[in-house]
Amino acid sequence: MDVPEGALTRRALSFVQGNGRRLACDRARRSAERWLEQGVDRGLVQRALDYEHRWGDLYLPPSLAYNGGPQYLGPDLLLGSWADGGYLEAGPARYSVSYDFLLGPDGVLGVGDVDFVPLYASVEGWIESLALESLLRGLATEVRRFTGPAVSGLDLSATRPVPGVSGLSDIWLMDDERVVFLCRGYSLLASVPADAFAVVYAGIPELEFNLDL
User: Fold this and answer.
1) What gap in Å lies between CA 40 and CA 119, rounded to an integer?
2) What is the rounded distance in angstroms from the CA atom of residue 20 to the CA atom of residue 106?
3) Which of 3, 124, 126, 192 has the highest CB neighbour count under 10 A?
4) Assign residue 44 a region: left if phi > 0, alpha if psi is -120 to 50, beta otherwise?
């Protein structure tokens, strides 16, 4: 599979090669001239073309969060007022949701409706999170989900970020016994703190507890 060299950790590269598929993609290229005629900034159109070349039409398994996340990666369209602010669509949603998956001017991947909430520092961060989620589902013998006030009650003082994921509103943390996924993006977008949730993966065999891939 065509994946940009050096873009992903070995963990994520193995996940993409084993679970993803990539189709030929030229929607942005075919739409570029029309976008320019409509007055879309030339720099934004070029970013759409670059994104399509890098990750366009990459299909990956669904995420635990955000109703599975984008159906595939790729700039199907430039979104009205979002385009005016320098945002691209990161990929269409799998199901009907109240927000869009967007790429900010600085390459951050996030969700937006009226406001924009950054989830990961890059598209690669999203892919890394999917790879980590898939890995942990196969390794952990104990998986617990926490919602509402129970999330803020978790003791995360001894944890450190899992390497490679570059989370912002959504973060992956680890200590010597567990890995914690803290999902806050939608709760921040909706301004409903109770919608944040955490998933704690524990019971990971010691020999497998090396996520620095």
Assistant:
1) 25
2) 26
3) 126
4) alpha
Q: Do the beta carbons of residue 200 and residue 146 sit within 8 Å? A: yes
Residue 111's H or E segment, with its range, is strand 109-112
pLDDT 10s digits, 10-36: 999 999 999 999 998 899 999 999 999
Please, are residues 39 and 76 in contact by the beta-carbon 8 Å criterion? Answer: no
Cα distance between residue 30 and residue 68, in whole Å: 28
Terminal CA-CA length for the chain: 20
Distance CA 210, CA 213 (A): 7
| Residues 196, 169 contacting (CB under 8 angstroms) | no
Six-digit token string for 39: 């007055």
Q: Are 213 and 8 in contact (CB under 8 A)?
A: no
Report the amino acid identity of residue 4: P
Helix, strand and coil percent figures for the chain, each rounded to 5: 35, 25, 40
Between 10-19 and 123-139, two packed helices, what is the crossing angle to 10 degrees?
80
